[in-house]
Every structure is written in structure tokens, then in C-alpha cells.
């Protein structure tokens, strides 16, 4: 046989010789029982907690959602300074389109007939004046209402303030004692929500298949009696969030309609329904609140017959409904299953370590077992050299800088 | 040597004695081959499926996206009851700003010259009346159009209905046979989308670097010929979603333009392009649909020379284009690699279990192998006590409540 | 003892006999040290990198966010062709509501007094004409401004163009040298952002608890001095994004205000604050840009006393501020901890493989160790049959198609 053939055969032996650990079998039922019991605990844990409770065998995907909303209802205002006026959806939903965020106006400060002109600034310590010298032409106070013209004019019979160039008359932003569109609590909102889990090609709507048209015409959402109805009475939503509608309507606020589409899409689970919950998203009574509530200003622009532009400025208070759709769907996936099984098997490999410790520590015949299990090599080993030079270096380095030398000597 | 020195030496032995399993080497090529083959299968699985197919070695991040859109085109309406009128982008895109959701009006019911006044309610079983007693002053029917005044007035020559305070004349919401802005099918929409994967500091736009200005001026998206063009003809989008534009334009609908930015950011993959797809998001022909299609009401407010406010109410039907950007980018990460390698290694530790079973069950010399591999402890073991008291308790408890006792006796 | 009892006892032995590997203990301190050192490296890696740096022991959840914004400030325009005009928030924020996307107009092209009528098209190679034959009645050029009437009319004294039916006069979309609302750089924006991590029932606002009302009334965000102030001066935001406000204001753009709520919610970490960053999201100077900057057209509709509708068309340039909230919160979770510990333990099971290799290759007494560790089975093994027939088939198949046969012979 040639030399290379011998080398090949060596390689073959190296690769294909089967090496299996020698074992010692101990027919001790208590030891065996302890071993199996520990194994059982690990398996129980893995199956029970990781698989059943946490569903770690699933791949997950996040929801993609599309929302349309439609508000219905009308309200009559009968303020002392205005004619009776009916408000319908085109009036109080701003902007008009029902997206995932809908604003319903509940209160307002209206300043009609504003034109670009000059008028006396609202009185405040920094705007009151006694003569023109107190006002600077062209100065614009960030807290003011316009650009100062440099004149000091009568605001009322007793107060003089600097004149400003602005949309006049200025808005007088008084405190509002109560909501003008109090009837908004009876408005209803229809929410249509379709969702997709793209990874699983799963589509669903919040109008469930078993819900029919005639039911939808008369139903109103109620957690107890109509949990599947997608039509919400505004007062009910606000109540569910733990707030009082009329309180909230005065200064406005942001209310989250949270739709949870968390689903288990495995066929043995098979159910995937939306769960609605409601939370106020802004802070009601904070110590550190600037601009409490929710409001914004908008204007309707008109043109007078003489071509002059006038506007009606409206500071709209109201409730913004944010429809927040979230959810994660899980479905059996081979990769997480393997990863989690792998982790579990690793724990099984810990069991013999525990059992061996138990055997060599807590059994009566521990010395006998120890002797049978482990063969102790009796000869001198410390004087030996390590042939790997880098390791040898590490050792020498360590020996010089530590007391390992003495250890080694003692170690004999 | 002192006692503590002896203790130390014991500890040293405990910590630094190297304990290695004794093994039995069996030069059986078939056994060796079976062993290596099983190992190979596991490695193949891990490399092939977990790494190549599922890319489990990657860390992933979700996309953050910003969208701007711009619609172009105009349409002429020539309805019998209106003058010919040209509609441009400022007229039919409501609200005007192109965000991730753009509404293009395709049909409408216009009710001009509405004022706050009194008029006869639209006839329906609940609103027809014969005299004033049938109408309740101040009553507001949620399905009606306003607040009843308590009078019964002529709606037409033959029908009397309750009078309401409302925006009059009331909207007559007739069925629309066809879309008035049918030409909207030729409108184009430019979508500019920039995305970020913050974890990887990766930025990209849907206008790809190799696309030049002159191409963008004339291109239209087409899956076959121009898949990178970010300008979409509305009819093409709707067709791609499997719908007919003119059908959808009559009652409106919601159409999802889904941009998938799923990317493999590893340098050896290196490609990251948007993939467009289109889906109708609302339900077309459902049994249980309330308010089918997509529409909303808005108003344009005017002021008459005498200061009275009038409005033109428009019930706008149209297609809302929701641009939904999603995606997950993956890049090699050390943590998932380790977790998944760990799981794989765990499976490798299963291989000897399988091989040993094969060796001790299926080979001819299984008895010989069994004898050489495992040393069976021959002496009496059951009478032995367990020194750990808690374990001892568990055993006693178990023994009393089960038939383990008998097992133990038989076991001899 | 009956036969079944004997079978049972066999089963009991099979299940409850405790099998433990026989080991060889080598009191070689260098070998032991190498073994422990390798173990230490693995543990260090796992603890140091996987746990401390990557926090792989945490379950994570994505943020759910609600944003409201409020812009303050006013600007005076004094263009030569218009009267001085003051712009306040109702004028320049379009649409008026402050959502997660706010548009602040900085520049504009205003075309007042448009009516539905006929006028000469803007001159361009395709619209200039010499007589009516050059114009097609009813033709609508996608790049034009309306529907051609078929007449050729004077655009100016020297140029004739086709007449179109459109909103006339047409918008003349000139290049704008500078922003008209240059003062917008001093506007401030208040951002109120509340977030939720639903999995952890964790709620927080970007107005932090330690911030009081009086501070909020005067503060402005500054990364150095006021990093917690939620009020942003527009110029500062744009500067932080590395842009010049006046440059950006001319043609508009999209600016991302990115709020990062990445949090470690474990009690020993306990801090969860928003981190603001700013980035321009559109492309500033690209080669392949269509419609650079950010603009859109909207109109204000008026009714003339004679009932004719007129509109003021505004091409609004400006900066859209997209408030992008993202973040992932992590909290100690038992499942990822187990998965990652499992992976780590798998690596520990690699250590003996490494140590054995070291022992059998690099130590002086490697032959002695090898002999003591592994028992080599000396007798003939190749001739043996495999009793499992499927395996046997595989082997025969392999033998025929490869040179394994020869290997087997050599192997002796």
C-alpha cells in the first residue's frame, strides 16, 4: 500500500469512525426518577409556557389598515348673539373628509366680518399706552394680534392701546362656560375598517360577515349588547374612555378609538375579530399644560360686492377622534419553531449536569458511583509542556504576573 | 501542608481538573456514514432553509415613510341642469393637499343656494303629515333633515310633510346613473415617496437614481414596460386592482396603492426597489354594506350682499387613494445569527442520540457494541437512601400515593 | 415471575435506569485552565454582548402615537401688486387642523377673480396658432389649461394662441425669486405627542412631568439648552436639518420632525424620553426631479352678487412638517431570555469539543490521553450487515454510483 493510500485511509478512519461516549448504567430507580422528573419539568415548561402561553412557534406580521368614517346627526345652536342655526355634518366636521382622524366641532368662538384693517390691540400690560411714543411702528409682538402702526388709540372709553394692522375686529377669546353644540353627544359615527396582514395574505373588515344590513341600520355599539356594531354614539365612546362628554366638549380634546386586531391565524385557533377600546389621548387636568384641550382656528373667506375680502374667523373647539388600528397576527412558522425547540433542547442538555451533581453529592453510594464514573489519571502532569506556542505564551505571561507559580507547586 | 492549603488544593483540583468523556471508537464505515449523513442533513437544513430561505441571520427594521402626491388633469362637465364647467385640480382634489391619502372627486350631488330657513321635509313614512298635530315642534329625527317646527306644509301638490328648520332647499339625494367627471380616468398622479430604515441609516426615494428628468416628463407607470415610473394614470391603477374605473367612479370607493419596500440590505444582495401593487380596500358588492362606496359632504360658504350666509352643499363621490407604504429591511446581525446557530447546534447534539439508537438497534453486532459502550452496575441499589432530605420527602410522598413501591420490589 | 411482568420490568429498567457518561479526569492545570478560559470567553460574550449591548432578553413592542400641533405667529406681505396684508395662522396653515402633518405656506402665486369663461391659452409651441384651423374644438391637451374651443385668439399684441374654456384668467406660473412670507422663520410650532406601548400598558407625553407651565410659556427648543421644550421655532428646525430656511421657503419642501421614543422599560433602566431629530425628506438638488419642492393648488370660492361663481386660485408653496413618531420599547421577557440562554448554552456545549481537540493535538502526552480517553474496537467491522433495510438500500445505491466500494476495501 502506498503512502498516500495510507494517508487516505487515515482520513477515512478520522471521518467515518464512529465515536460514542462510554456510559455507566446505574439501575437506581430514585436516581432515574429524579432524572426523568427533571426532564419532564423542562419539557412541561417548554410546551406549557413557551408554546401554549407565549405562542413562540409563530411568525408574526403587523397590520396594515384602511379606515373610513362617517358622522351623522345635527344640532341647533341658539346663542343670544346669533340667530338660531342648524349645524349639519358639512358644518361641524372639519376637514370634511372622514379619514382615520375625524374632528367634530362642539364649541366655537366666531369672529365675523373681519377685514384687513387697523384696530386697537386687545388690552394687556404690554399693549396699553398713553400716547404714540409707547407704540413702535412695524413692531410685531409674538403675543399680540398684528403689526403695530405706531399709533395709540382708544380701545374703550377708559383704555388706550396701540393700534395694529390685522384682521379687524380682533378675536376676543373669552372663556366658554359650556359647549354650544351640546347635542353632538347624540351624533353617531360609522367606522369602516379593512385590514390586511400582507405576509399571510389575510384580509378582513370590521363589518363582520354575520352582520346584516338591517341590523346595521338600527344598531349602536355597546360593549355588552352590540359588541360587533361599527356605529358609535359619541357620548358612549367618551363614556367608555371614562370621560364626561359635556365636560370634554367645552375645551375639546383628543379621543383615541383603538381597534386591536391581534389575531391567531392558525387554523385550530381560527378567530380574528376586532376589539374596540377607547382612551383619552390628551391630558385633562395637568399642572404643566399649555393650550389645554383641542382647538384650532380656521376662516371662511367672503368677498364683499366692492371686491374687499372679509372672513369669518372661527376658533373651533371639539373632539378629535383618532382611530388607531394596531395588531399582530401570528401563524405557525418553521423558523421560530426550530429556534425555540433548539433553545428547549439546550435546556435538556442541562439535565444530566444536574443529575450527575445529584448522584455524586446526595446519594449514599456517591463514592462508589464517582469511582466507577470517573477514572482519575494518577501520574505527574504539571511538568508537561504545551506544544501550542501561543498558548504557551499566555501561560508564561500569566505565571509571571500572578501567583499561579505557587499554585502550580502546591498543586503537586 | 496546612489544612487550608489542602482545602485550596482541593478547590483547584475541582476547578481546573479537566474532565473529558471516555469514548468508544467503532471503525464501522456504515455506522460512521449514517452518523455523518444525519449531521449533514441537519446542517443542510440549517444552512438551506433557515439561512438562505428565511434569512434568520438578519436583524430587521420597519420602514418610515413620507409621501407627497400631485394629481394632474382636467375634466369638463356638461350636465343638463348646469352650465358647462371645467374642473381642475383645485376643484376635484379635496382637501387640496396631497398627502398619503388623496381624494379625487368623480361624481357629485350639488345643492346650491342653501340658506338657514324653513322648508318641507323630504317625504317618507315618518315625515308625511295631514295636519300640524302630526309634527312635533323641536323634534329632530335622526333620519330627517332638521329640527321640526311643528307645522305641516305642502312638499308638492299632492304630498304634505312636516316643516323643518334646516339648510334649505334640502338635498335630494338621487341615485346617480353615471359619473359626471368620467374624464377623471385620464388624470395622472405623481407619487413621491422617500423612506428610511432608521436602524440601518438607509434612505431611498421611489424616483430611482437611474431615472432622468426627460423620462419622468413623459412616462406612465406600466407593470410591463415602465415599472419604475412614479406617475400613475388613474384608470390603470384601478384596472390593476381588478376594477372598472367607470363603475367605481359612480359611487366612489377606496383604492390602496401599496408600496412594498421589503429589502435585503446586505452588501451581497444590495438591491432595494419599491414594488407597487393595487387593491380595492372597501367592499364592492357586500350583502351587509351600509353606505356603500365612498362619499362625504362638504360645503362652500358664500355671503350674500345683504349679509346672509348661503352655502353650496356638495355630496362628493369619488375614489380615495390610500398610499400604504410597508416593508421590512433585513441586514446581517450578530445576535440573530448566534441565536439561530445556537438552535442549529442544539439539533446537532440530537444526532448522537439518533446514531446511538441506530447502533444499538439496527446493527448486527449491537449486543457487542452495547456491552462495550455501557457498563452495567451489578450490585444492589434500591435499598440505598438519598441523603438530600427534600428529595427524600418527595420520594416518600410519591411512594405512599402510588404503586411505585411495588415497582421497586419487582424491580429487583 | 410471569412473562408480562418481565416485560414491564424491562421497560422500567429502560426508563428509569440512569445512564451517565464515563469520564476521564486529567489533573493537568494548563488543560483545565484552557477549558475554563474558553468557557469564560463564551459566557463573557453572551453576557456582555447579547445581554448588555443588544438586550436580547427583552420582549419588544412598537409605539402607538397621537400628535397635535399648533403653529403661532404672523407675517406681513407687501408685494408690489397687492395691498399690505397680514397673514395669521388661519391664513397660512392649510388645512387648518394640526395633525401629524402640518403645512405652513411660505410663498404663493395668487390668481384672483377667476371665472368659468374663455381665454387665450398660455403660449407654448403646441398652443400658438395662426388661424382657427390650428386649434381643435373639444381637444384637451394634458399640458394645457383647458378645453380648446377651436378659435385662435390674441394672447398679446404679437402672439396668437388657441382659445380654451377654463377658469380665466389663467394662472401665470412664474419663477419666484424669494419667499413672500419670509417672516415664517419666526413662527413657532407646539407639538403635543402622547404615546402608548400597548403591550406594556405604558403611556407618556412629550411634555415631561418636570416641565411646568411657566417654563412652557417662554421656552423654545434648543438641543443644547432646552432639549425638553416642545415648542419649536421653524427656522431652528430647518437649520437642525442642515437647510437654510429662506432657501427652502421659496420652492417649499418636506421636513421630517422625527421623534424617537425608543425606551428600555425595565425598572433598573427606568428612563424613557423622546429624542428629536430633523431631516429634509424631499430631494433638494436632484438631477431627476419632477416638481421640485412642495406645492399644491387650492382655491377660495366666492359668489358675485349676480350669482356667478368666481374663485381665487392659490398655488401654495411651503414647508410640510411631517411628525414621524417611531420607537420600540423593550422589557425583560421570559421567552426571549430562554431562547437566548438556550443559544448560549449551545455554545458552551462546543467548548469540550475545542478542549478535546486541544488535548489530543497540542499536549505532550496526547497519545497517552488519546489512549485513555478512547477505546478502539479492534475487530473486523466492515463485513457486517445493517439490519435496517432502507439504510441498506441507500448504501447499496451509493456503493454502485461511487467509488465507495474501493474505499471500503482499502479501508481494511
What is the topological layout?
Three copies of one chain form a homotrimer.
Chain A: H1 3-16, E1 18-21, E2 23-26, H2 29-53, E3 58-62, E4 64-72, E5 75-77, E6 85-87, H3 89-92, E7 101-120, E8 147-154, E9 160-168, E10 188-197, E11 202-205, H4 213-218, E12 231-233, H5 234-240, H6 245-251, E13 253-260, E14 263-264, E15 275-280, E16 295-303, E17 309-326, E18 328-332, H7 334-348, H8 351-362, H9 366-373, E19 374-376, H10 389-401, H11 404-410
Parallel strand pairs in A: 13-17, 14-18
Antiparallel strand pairs in A: 3-18, 4-10, 5-6, 7-9, 7-17, 8-9, 10-11, 10-12, 13-15, 16-17
Q: Concise description?
A:
The structure is a homotrimer of 412-residue chains. Chain A is of the alpha+beta class and 412 residues long.
Describe it:
3 copies of one chain form a homotrimer. Chain A is built from 11 helices and 19 strands. With 412 residues, chain A is α+β, with helices and mostly antiparallel strands. In chain A, helix 8 (351-362) crosses helix 9 (366-373). The longest helix of chain A is centred in the first third of the chain and has 25 residues, at 29-53. Residues 380-412 of chain A have low confidence and may be disordered. Chains in contact: A-B, A-C, B-C. The interface between B and C is large, with 87 and 100 residues. Strand 2 (23-26) of chain A pairs antiparallel with strand 1 (18-21) of chain C.
